[in-house]
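Saturday, quiet lab. Running sequence design on the structure tokens for the scaffold JK sent over.
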């Protein structure tokens, strides 16, 4: 009950300051993270939450399922085909390059094994637009940049998930037989996520059934709950099932997608904020202090070097302006998916679980603080497109942000 009381109080406070947060560097995500830290054993001790506390695993599972389901619903196949060129570069090149660079430095700087290093890379690979809300929601920011960040962050959670699952299994010492079972679990999850929504939508579109306007938003809820239940019963991967189900509804049920969108975003947001509160409660000064200089150096590399370098390589020849490319390179915040993947690692029981969680936690905290406090500043840089930034000239000589006299290209890529 104490957790519910703290969450309700912080939620009310976040609602009351949400308008201010939209105009300033204040972030509601930071509010929940800090509130969790203060309420946890690292400060006032109101919340006694341990990694093996049942609420941690349950909340992480439900939150990730809800978020992946709503993420998938934002990016149906038609959306991907219509705006794939830039997000395709970020996902096809940027994500694996970010993962690889992060793993490489984790192995040599932190002395972790390759499986653990790749696991850290996969956990920190997803991005979250919530911590760059002022940029994504500013209509003066070029539409293709906002679309890039939205589509990339909506898809990369699901793309990073199989890597997290596989590297976690390898780090746990899983043998070939179990890896085969793991592959079956992943495929079964995808199958459930595609077949169940498709059949449900076909039933509703038949002449025998029809959802009323009042119940239409619950259609996607029912589909999501059925996918969750079947995934539990059959031991299919819940998270791939959630993402596949969201994409299937978005692709074959645009009416259901539209009806569910606002409600679904609110449910996912509640789960996100609750997970951030619990995550913050798990943090203590001792935990952050045990990381050491090598750990903090790795965290800085993961945030300031790995993604910017990977995105710079990915966007070579993409004809983005300097401002657009720098904004995309910088805003790769480690957000909610990384929080939940970190919690999954912590509760996995592998030998390096706590070490990995410490590093991941530090990266997430620093990323949230840096990105959520700079999105307003960077967004305001697009208020006057004619004003050339001071760093534009040197960056052009490096091949970043070359401008092209192609008026049609600006709106379509």
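Result came back. Writing it out in full:
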């Amino acid at each position: 009950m104490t957790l519910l009381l703290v969450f309700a109080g912080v939620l009310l406070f976040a609602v009351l300051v949400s308008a201010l947060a939209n105009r300033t560097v204040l972030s509601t995500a930071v509010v929940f993270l800090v509130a969790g830290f203060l309420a946890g054993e690292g400060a006032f001790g109101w919340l006694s939450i341990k990694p093996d506390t049942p609420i941690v695993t349950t909340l992480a599972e439900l939150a990730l399922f809800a978020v992946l389901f709503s993420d998938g619903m934002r990016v149906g196949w038609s959306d991907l085909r219509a705006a794939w060129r830039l997000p395709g570069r970020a996902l096809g090149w940027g994500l694996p390059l970010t993962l690889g660079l992060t793993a490489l430095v984790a192995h040599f700087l932190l002395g972790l094994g390759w499986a653990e290093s790749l696991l850290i890379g996969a956990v920190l690979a997803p991005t979250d637009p919530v911590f760059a809300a002022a940029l994504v929601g500013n209509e003066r920011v070029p539409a293709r940049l906002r679309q890039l960040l939205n589509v990339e962050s909506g898809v990369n959670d699901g793309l990073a998930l199989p890597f997290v699952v596989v590297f976690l299994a390898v780090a746990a010492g899983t043998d070939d037989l179990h890896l085969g079972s793991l592959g079956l679990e992943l495929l079964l999850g995808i199958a459930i996520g595609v077949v169940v929504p498709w059949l449900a939508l076909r039933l509703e579109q038949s002449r025998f059934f029809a959802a009323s306007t009042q119940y239409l938003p619950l259609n996607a809820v029912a589909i999501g709950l059925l996918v969750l239940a079947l995934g539990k019963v059959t031991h299919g991967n819940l998270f791939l099932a959630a993402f596949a189900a969201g994409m299937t509804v978005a692709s074959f049920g645009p009416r259901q997608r539209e009806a569910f969108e606002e409600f679904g975003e609110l449910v996912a947001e509640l789960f996100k904020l609750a997970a951030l509160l619990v995550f913050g409660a798990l943090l203590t000064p001792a935990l952050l202090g045990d990381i050491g200089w090598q750990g903090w150096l790795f965290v800085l590399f993961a945030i300031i070097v790995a993604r910017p370098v990977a995105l710079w390589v990915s966007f070579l020849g993409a004809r983005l302006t300097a401002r657009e490319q720098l904004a995309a390179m910088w805003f790769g915040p480690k957000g909610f998916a990384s929080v939940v993947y970190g919690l999954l690692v912590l509760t996995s029981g592998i030998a390096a679980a706590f070490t990995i969680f410490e590093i991941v936690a530090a990266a997430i905290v620093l990323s949230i603080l840096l990105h959520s406090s700079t999105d307003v500043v960077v967004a305001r840089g697009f208020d006057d497109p004619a004003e050339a930034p001071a760093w534009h000239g040197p960056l052009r000589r490096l091949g970043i942000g070359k401008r092209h006299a192609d008026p049609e290209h600006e709106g379509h890529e």
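Notes for JK: The domain at 2-175+254-412 is CATH 1.20.1530 (Na+/H+ antiporter like fold). Residues 385-413 have pLDDT under 50 and may be disordered. Ask whether to fix the surface positions before the next round.
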